[in-house]
Every structure is written in C-alpha cells, then in structure tokens.
Write a structure and sequence with these properties.
5-stranded parallel beta sheet, about 190 residues, alpha/beta, 8 strands
Length: about 190
C-alpha cells in the first residue's frame, strides 16, 4: 500500500525584491519519511523550511499541506523563542494552562530535563539543555512531521547520539537541514541538495 503524501511543494520560488532566495524547488514527503536538505550557506534551505511550514508565502509555485497535518518546527534560532526568565515547566504551562505541571515534568524528563533542571530559570541551562527544552515544547502537541533546521548546533556528541535515537523512534515524518554528515546518514531516507 502506497504511503499518503502529506506534504508537497512544486516549482516553489521565493523572491525578496530582486534577491532570489528559492528558485524552482520541489519536494514531496510521505507519511513517516525522513528527508535531509543539504547545501551551502545561503542556498535557501532555511527559506525552504519556512515555505514548507507555511510561514512564508511563495512568490511562485504550488504547495500542498494535508489539512490535518500538525507540524513541529525547530529552527536554528530556537532559543529566541524561549523566555529565559521562566523555567521549562513554566514555559509549557504558559502555552497549555489546562495541563498539570506533573505531566510537563514527566515529558521534560524524557528529554533529560528532570528534577530541578525543569524548575530552574532557563538562563541557567546550557545550550544543549535549552535545545532539549525546545524539543520538548515542539513535541508536546504530537506533531505528524518535524522540521529541524540545524538541530545539532549546541549539542555534544552524546547529545547528538541521543537525538538520533529519539528521532529514529519518532513515527512521524522529518525534514532535516544539517551540515552534520554523521547525523544525516543516521536518519535520512533521502537527501535533497
């Protein structure tokens, strides 16, 4: 049985005035598939991720997003979305006030943010710990697809391996932008250059 296409862009282009950020990109993603986006800095990978998420209007081309698709996005600048004065539990509670703190602590614990780490202001956490909090936040709503833009930044080798194991166990689709060849080889079904 063929897997359902959950996401597709065809001949996608994005211009910022005279600057062409994306020119004729095409990508099709089936349920549960893992694809990697590779290329030089400035080649349009992050622009494509924004277009895939629907955060950016295309100048030209076609985009299909399944109407029930939940997308989780991890950007290169994920720390900018964290309120560093808050704890990880407080951050999740500010987004989902109807959920008991214990459920958030359990979820954060599965990402290695347990005990007092979950209650500390995030400015006291390391870069890798902040990345783990970001992953916990984006996975809380059980997305069908994760868009990961340079997810191994700020992670040491052990954390990268833990992320590989977690993502290999993730049942949804993945679109991964990375320069980390080891990381891409461990995850991706195919690469787009």
């Amino acid at each position: 049985m063929a897997k359902k296409v959950i996401y597709e862009v065809r001949n996608a282009s994005k211009n910022y005035g005279a600057v062409v950020a994306l020119d004729g990109a095409s990508l099709k993603l089936h349920a549960g598939e893992v694809v990697g986006l590779v290329g030089d800095n400035g080649a349009g990978k992050s622009t494509l991720v924004k277009a895939l998420c629907g955060d950016l209007e295309l100048t030209d081309g076609y985009r299909f997003i399944h109407n029930r698709l939940r997308i989780g996005v991890f950007t290169q600048h994920h720390m900018d979305s964290l309120d560093l004065k808050m704890s990880a539990v407080e951050m999740l509670m500010s987004k989902h006030s109807d959920v008991p703190a214990e459920k958030f602590r359990s979820h954060l614990g599965s990402f290695g943010i347990s005990n007092n780490l979950a209650l500390r202001p995030m400015y006291l956490l390391s870069g890798g710990q902040k990345s783990r909090v970001s992953f916990a936040i984006i996975t809380w709503e059980k997305p069908h697809i994760l868009m990961l833009d340079e997810p191994t930044n700020h992670l040491d080798f052990d954390a990268i391996n833990a992320l590989i194991v977690a993502l290999n166990n993730f049942e949804g689709g993945l679109v991964v932008v990375s320069h980390d060849e080891y990381f891409l080889n461990a995850l991706c079904d195919r690469l787009y250059i």
